[in-house]
Amino acid sequence: MAHIQTQEEWEVEISKKILAFVRNEIYLDLRFMDVALSALAPEPDSQIHTFATDGTFLYFSTEQVLRVFRQNAPFLDRAYLHSILHCIFGHLWIGGKRDRRLWNLACDIAVEYTIDRMQVPCTKRILSWLRQQMYEELRGQRISISAAVIYRMVMDYPEEKIRQLEPEFFTDDHRYWPKQEDSEAKQQAAAASQKKWNKIARQTKMEQEQRGDEPKDGEELFASQLAAEKSRRSYRDFLQKFAVLREEMHVDPDEFDLNYYTYGLQLYQNMPLIEPLESRETKKIQEFVIVIDTSYSTSGELVKGFLRETVDILNQNNSFFVDSKIRILQCDNKVCSDVVIHGKQGLDKLLERFELLGGGGTDFRPAFTYVNELLEQGVFKNLCGLLYFTDGKGIYPKLRPEYKTAFLFLEDYDDAVVPPWAIRLRLSEEEFLQVP
């Protein structure tokens, strides 16, 4: 007997057809977003009243899709694009320790600002007075706009203003965004989803650049936000170069004792005995040196932001061994401070009393001399590498050290004066000027 479709099944079927229509309508105006628009699988969800995403599915309320399509169809276009842009900009995965409520608001403002500046026919709307005021304030910023920049702004807003902005910019539900307290399985799924969207973001940017058309105002804003998030992703991937392979106590369900396995086959004929190994080899950071250039061009808030971001990224990727140590040096033309911390808790304590020392001219050599002396004294057991956070204007050592060395530049630098053995990375300053 043929299956008789229920009312609920019919509503889901029609809703998915509507979403396919919405996706195609957006594509006609934003063809460079073809891959991104098709990357989320539609999934009905009776627990929500609007769209939501976890980077894999686009959850939707059938009641909302059917109702809004009849009454205000352009809103569905905006809501669909809104969730897609959250994924492209990486908002789901880069919240870190920020206040969740304010981060949600900042991400919504960043996405809505981008959509309104794009001025594409299928998402165009009349701007409320509150939006006009907010956008005027964003245009007054001297740095590129991103969710991190907006987050810094809204942190200073009074509660009354935040309550006004939240309903104005609310579009989708963020309940399925990954959280730091999620289980290990969920964190692994989130990491895979983030990797997928990093690739989609790169491809989307490339498609936009290859069109050959003059970019519109809103598309330039879209590109600048992609660049800001790319800086953070690049830094995260960059840090993994300093990890070392070491055996760590941890039950590994994918590996087991082969002797025990074969013994079970012999004893019970067809029943192997499987006991997971209690240790496994993992690549993590064990000992690490961060040198802060404290010349006049480096501010205390910028340094704090850099240190927070570094440890947050490492914590999010579970990149520390239990006994990991980070040595933080402050140096201008001499070593002014040497502090050893253990992971995130040690950093929090350091930042509570952090004071930028030095302020003279920049000479990179004293920091390397100091670290080399510690190596000779046996202070370091397994030094993974050294990061030098700087504007790049200083005297570099001529000899290559025994450990990996990277210079992280806040400004454009003269590549000719940087030693060929040094790893280098240009960072986006605004991504570190943030409060968690």
Task: List low-confidence stretches.
Answer: 245-254
Judged by helices, strands and strand pairing, the structural class is alpha/beta
Whole-number mean pLDDT: 79
Euclidean distance between termini CA atoms: 59 Å
Rg for CA atoms: 25 Å
Q: What is the helix content?
A: 40-55%
Q: What's the number of helices?
A: 14
Tell me about the largest β-sheet: 7 strands, mixed
Task: Give the beta-strand count.
Answer: 11
Total count of domains:
2
| Proportion of beta-strand residues | 15-25%
Query: Based on CA inertia axes, which overall geometry fits?
Result: globular
Helix/strand order, N-terminal first: HHEEEHHHHHHEHHEHEHEEHHEEE
Summarize the structure in words.
The protein has 436 residues and is an alpha/beta fold. The protein has two domains: 7-239, no CATH class; 285-431, von Willebrand factor, type A domain (Rossmann fold), CATH 3.40.50.410. Helices cover 47% and strands 18% of the residues. It is built from 14 helices and eleven strands. The chain has helices spanning 7-29, 34-37, 62-71, 73-88, 100-118, 129-139, 147-155, 159-169, 184-210, 217-239, 258-268, 300-316, 343-352, 365-376; strands at residues 41-44, 51-53, 57-60, 172-173, 244-256, 276-293, 320-331, 335-341, 383-390, 405-409, 423-426. The protein is globular, with a radius of gyration of 25 Å. Mean pLDDT is 79; it is low at 245-254.
